[in-house]
Batch of 2 targets.
Target 1
Amino acid sequence: MKLFNSLGNAKEELQPNPHGKFTMYFCGPTVYNYAHIGNFRTYLLQDVLTRILEVEGYSPCVARNITDVDDKTIRDSIKNNVSLKTFTEKWTKIFHEDCEALNMKSPDFEPKATEHIDEQIDMIKTLMEKGFAYLAPDHSVYFRIASFKEYGRLSNIENRELKTQEIDSAGKKNLADEYDRENVSDFALWKSTKPEDGENFWMSPWGKGRPGWHIECSAMAKKYLGCTIDLHSGGVDLKFPHHENEIAQSECANGKKFVRYWMHVAHLLVDGAKMSKSLGNLYTLGDILKKKYSAQCLRYALIAAHYGQQLNFTFNNLVAAKNAIEKLQNFFHKIAPLQDIQKFEISEWKFLESAFSALLDDMNTPACLGSVFKLINETSPESLNEEQKHTLHREFSTIMYCLGLRLDDKEQDIEVPQEIKRLAKLRWQAKQSKNFVEADRLRQELSKYGWIIKDFSSTYIIEKEEL
Ligand SMILES: [Zn+2]
């Protein structure tokens, strides 16, 4: 598979890891609120990447962290009068439910920052021993950027720019304790405790405090995936300073290259503007469901554009997604072969080669979908014999697996009432046992409620009758 490597800015062939698993680290959520659709665009495209690599035989192994300590989690847990643990566990659970609704695969490892304080302290100690970090008068520990010549290689940031950008992105707060640092762009590895942190601190060789945000990814990536990982990914907003800082920490502490390939997902805009609470255009999965679109529609809308391109999300995207999914489902049911088939044993593609090659070429999801719809428009399932149906169904299923789209009856669960599904199932059973009188009776009963049944060789679909 080829992917655009942000380190070096070129499309490169992903070399499988000679040691077996292809290790990937994805920067995960800070659990203090609902993840919004911009966050999910990144997570979903990472999910698609994982699926493609799995199908292509790379044996991916994924770690995605949970940030359960930072200014926001501490602030909001205190505001809600609950412990940091209770507070972040609640939001982690909600995040997992959203991920499941969006049909995302669980990572192999999902380490929490608070459960890896020792590993973070160890790494900070190493950095201090090697002269890459120093203790400031306020008992915080900072990384000395001047000690790492490679700093800025990923984001192509010059030293001059560094100062102004750091001030811009960090805001006023960090300027307040700027005098404690040797250089304004040095970043915190360990933050000494402040009154507003309450009981949320840990003991360290430098006194009470908590780790800075960046160090958790370096420490946990090392613990679960080793010193050098194959691929690291996150939203493009994490490139600087977060990923730049991760490289500095890991390479200075471990003395080894940190990451072979960097993959960044471009921004999501909503109605042409950056998402923000004040503009009222910050959407969560719950907001989308309230508007009667399924989680799968959202998944489709968020993965349909190329990961390297900004996506301008509007509700029209969801309408288009809904139509597209219906078209895929209809076709999928029409090509269902008589027998159930096992997936993923394609040695030679016959129908959808261009769709799969599009995925292998820098994960071009729009080109992949384009190929799938071209095939749908040009193929009449009725003209296929059983063997061709079998092959096409297998290829189609594989592409849908890569995209994480479910075309079985699960998607219908959202709209078809339980009672209707029960009657439809009874009718199918009656028909299978050749009890045509009963099958007909049930068909008429369903029709009274405004539902019609379409039969295919091995399954059926329930549709709302057009008025
Ligand atoms: Zn990270």
Note: The longest strand covers residues 229-235.
Target 2
Amino acid sequence: MKQPILNPFRPGAGHPPPYLAGREEEKREFIRLLDQEPVLTNLVLTGLRGVGKTVLLETLKPLAIQKNWLWAGTDLSESAAVSEDSIAVRILADLSPLTANTLVSESEVRRVGFTATAEKQQTYLDFSFLKWLYDNTPGLTSDKLKTVLELVWTSLGADNSDIRGVVLAYDEAQNLSDQADRQQYPLSLLLDVFQSIQKKGLPFFLVLTGLPTLFPKLVEARTFTERMFHIMTLGRLAEAECRDAILKPITQHACPVRFTGAAVAEIVKYSGGYPYFIQFLCREMFDSYLQQKAGGEINPVVTVEQTIRKLDSDFFAGRWNRVTDRQRELLSVAARLPNCDDEFTVQEVVEQSRKGSEKPFSPSHVNQILAKLADNGLVYKNRHGRYVFAVPLLGGFIRRQEALEGA
Ligand SMILES: Nc1ncnc2c1ncn2[C@@H]1O[C@H](COP(=O)(O)OP(=O)(O)O)[C@@H](O)[C@H]1O
Ligand SMILES: [Mg+2]
């Protein structure tokens, strides 16, 4: 029987692409950071949804391991870290698989006052021990966590002198928030503890990944974070990198389906260089070609334009349907700005609205609506106080909608 033709493209959050294009400079930078001794600079990996933060983080892991770093961490999208205690316990749980086979020295066991159970003569750094130490250390949550991390490093370092340190990597870290009303400061806790243990020379290296709201949030919690992190902002892929992302999977898998030169150029153009859109367009076009072929079509024709319509309904429409009419009007005005895919100011939106036929917006109104849209995750305010669409290529979608409605 003939083997079915597999579609190599993988649009989807965190799905490893068939070929990870570009990001060479980011990998090199990460390797440089791994060479620090002591750790002074941690890493924030940021960018819009779909630019490839999660998959890049996954590719950094083997690089760290190759350099004798241990790697622990998780995805914080479940927002497990709403209290200080929960983020601390989260860290213990993430570290414990790395340390569970490491023995704690007799003298350390005596020093901390742990009494081993009769059946276990030796004490291992497993979760129950880490948690015991955490619970039985007097003081604030930060003191408890610092004590555990210090013991973890002393024991790991003593056990295996080749180990350079421990990378703690948290994805979707924009979900971490201090909550003054509940008097819970998990984000500040994390920053305080890392700053303190790194000052003491303990090689724990923090990697936080998240949406562009992440870094401003860190700085708001603790101003010293400005100096504590190197910010890596992932953006669109360059044209040659886009071509690699599109073409390499086809040649590597020896696919019988090919994209024409014109199709490749169109995919590059419409995707705006955003990895998620590249995967989406390629996957859809590939499938559609195969379906037509299976339906008996001798020369299937698949255009990027048809596929864009599917992208609009699958990806953008859900988000668009959740905004109110007045918010839509404002977004439409913003989408007419030539710089809408980069950043724009309240003033620019106001001025643009005066050029249109609808009722113009006042500055306070624009401010108010943009703040609301920011709460809903459609725009965000960047470090320079300017607004940016939080969904890549939203401007193009809005203009396409308008053209449809006008038609
Ligand atoms: N460098 C890249 N080359 C090709 N495809 C990529 C690249 N980076 C990400 N992708 C693809 O883009 C999509 C989004 O990646 P993901 O890591 O989930 O983004 P983020 O975490 O930033 O939201 C996935 O389908 C992934 O396979
Ligand atoms: Mg992600």
Note: The chain has a mean pLDDT of 91.
